[in-house]
């Protein structure tokens, strides 16, 4: 097993910066936090209902889906890759797991057992899709943009075909057994929020405390140097896309009981929101550096923007995607101006 290369700032010497107390000081890392705090103040001023506990839990629950995907996307972008298919992937996973659960209903034990099998299937399917992306990128030597742009269309087209242009609906008994996964709560906090928190902590540990995380950063910083350091670049990239696929599977598991169905519009523009959360959180779009904490804050920040638009009449809620697109462009512009 090769020794882990030095952090990204040491692998790529031209980006090395002064350190304070042994850690690199980057004033830009606090930008997302400041932005979120300002939005919270603005939201409270515009509508008193914004600052209620129920609305806070609603925002965090809605954030959970995109936030979990964003954590996986953070690894991919730090490694220098991209995945444009996560929304379509989620739609196909949702349709596939609903079809499987409906087929197993009444023949495999209780509805809870069927739901458990459906959830396991979603995770395996997501991981399989992610590994397929990684294989095409590493072995096929195809650019990530091209691979995932192609599967974006493939996944959604297959789901549309399976649904015959309509919606795939979960059986009522299964829906009742599955409902607590989204609508249930623990200690007054919804289940999706707990799962989001657990995935966030696991992602932070994996990125910052393991050799795999250091390899991901080293590859995104300078892939050629990482190869010279005896890092198995192809294997790390393969696992990175597999990790993202699993994250999409987890998000889909939480999303399906919300509506109990999957349609051609399921997961629409999720890729935009996931990428926006990562970039807003301070991760460099060029790769090599990024933080899970920043990504989580970025996901919450975008959800807060959407929530404020829903609670006020400043601009139409239909322009939410346009706002997110503007945020991505603005943050990318600011990143280019970094020293």
Automatic annotation (TrEMBL):
A single GO molecular function term of this UniProt record: transmembrane transporter activity
Main localization category: membrane
Keyword Transmembrane: yes
Subcellular localization: Cell membrane
Top-level taxon of origin: Bacteria
GO cellular component labels: plasma membrane
Disordered: region residues: 1-24
Protein name (database record): ABC transporter permease
């Amino acid at each position: 097993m090769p020794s882990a290369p030095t952090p990204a700032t040491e692998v790529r010497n031209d980006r090395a910066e002064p350190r304070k107390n042994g850690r690199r000081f980057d004033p830009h890392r606090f930008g997302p936090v400041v932005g979120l705090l300002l939005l919270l103040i603005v939201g409270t001023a515009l509508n008193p209902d914004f600052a209620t506990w129920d609305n806070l839990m609603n925002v965090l629950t809605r954030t959970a889906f995109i936030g979990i995907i964003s954590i996986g996307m953070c690894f991919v972008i730090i490694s220098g890759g991209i995945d444009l298919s996560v929304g379509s992937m989620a739609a196909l996973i949702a349709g596939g797991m609903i079809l499987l659960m409906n087929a197993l209903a009444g023949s495999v034990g209780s509805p809870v057992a069927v739901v458990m099998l459906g959830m396991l299937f979603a995770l395996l399917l997501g991981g399989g899709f992610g590994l397929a992306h990684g294989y095409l990128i590493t072995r096929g030597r195809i650019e990530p943009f091209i691979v995932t742009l192609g599967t974006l269309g493939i996944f959604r087209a297959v789901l549309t075909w399976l649904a015959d242009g309509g919606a795939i609906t979960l059986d009522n008994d299964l829906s009742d057994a599955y409902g607590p996964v989204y609508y249930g709560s623990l200690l007054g906090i919804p289940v999706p929020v707990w799962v989001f928190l657990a995935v966030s902590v696991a992602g932070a540990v994996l990125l910052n405390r393991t050799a795999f995380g250091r390899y991901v950063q080293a590859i995104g910083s300078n892939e050629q140097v990482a190869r010279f350091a005896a890092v198995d670049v192809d294997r790390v990239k393969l696992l990175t896309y597999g990790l993202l696929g699993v994250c999409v599977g987890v998000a889909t598991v939480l999303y399906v009981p919300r509506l109990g169905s999957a349609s051609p519009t399921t997961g629409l523009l999720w890729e935009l929101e996931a990428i926006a959360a990562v970039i807003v959180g301070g991760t460099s779009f060029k790769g090599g550096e990024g933080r899970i904490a920043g990504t989580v804050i970025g996901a919450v920040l975008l959800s807060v923007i959407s929530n404020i638009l829903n609670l006020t009449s400043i601009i139409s809620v239909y322009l939410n995607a346009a706002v997110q697109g503007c945020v991505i462009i603005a943050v990318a512009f600011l990143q280019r101006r970094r020293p």
